[in-house]
Amino acid sequence: MDNCIFCQIVEGKIPSEKVYEDDDILAFRDLYPAAPVHILVIPKKHISSLLELQEEDQALSGKILLGLQKVARQLGLDEKGFRVVNNTGSDGGQTVFHIHFHLLGGRELQWPPG
Ligand code: AMP
User: Fold this and answer.
1) Ligand 1-lining residues (CB < 6 angstroms)
2) Using one digit for the tens of pLDDT, what is the confidence trace for 9-52?
3) What positions constitute the catalytic site (predicted)?
4) Which domains does the chain have, with CATH numbers?
C-alpha cells in the first residue's frame, strides 16, 4: 500500500535497521524504543490489523510467531525472557495500520501495562 510506512520499509523506500528478513516477514528496530531491545516483526503482506487477518493468513500467522522466537533467540532474549505485544485499534493504542508485533526485552518489564 502506497501510503503505509511499513510497506515502504518493506520496499526499502524508508530506511530501517533490519534484524531479520525472509520471504514473508521482516523484523526491524523500533524508531522510538520503549526497552533496550525493541523490535517490530511484520508480515511483508499488507494487513491493517489483527482484526483483518483472514483464514488464508493462517500459515503466515505461524511464521510471524516463529519469526518472533527466532529474533528473540538471535538477540539473546531467550535467556531472561521478553514480551510480545500487538496493539489493535484506538483503545489498543495502534498508530501504524500494518499489523505488527512488538518484541520487547533487555530489562525487567512491568505488568500490567498502562
Ligand atoms: P503501534 O503504536 O503499536 O501501532 O506501534 C507502531 C510503532 O512503530 C511505534 O512503536 C513507533 O515507534 C514505530 N515506528 C513508527 N515509524 C517507524 C519507523 N519509520 N521505523 C521504525 N519504527 C517506527
Assistant:
1) 5, 14, 16, 30-32, 40, 87, 93-96
2) 999 999 999 999 999 999 999 999 999 999 999 999 999 999 99
3) 100
4) 5-105 (3.30.428.10)
Torsion of CA 97, 53, 72, 17, to 10 degrees: -30
DSSP string, 22-86: -SSEEEEE-SS-SSSEEEEEEESS---SGGG--GGGHHHHHHHHHHHHHHHHHTTTTTT-EEEE-
Mean pLDDT of the chain: 97
Beta bridge partners of 39: 29, 103
Give the model's confidence band at 54: pLDDT under 50 very low, under 70 low, under 90 confident, else very high. very high
Alpha carbon of 4 to ligand 1 centroid (Å): 12
Residue 100 a catalytic site member: yes
Ligand 1 centroid, distance to 80 Cα (angstroms): 25
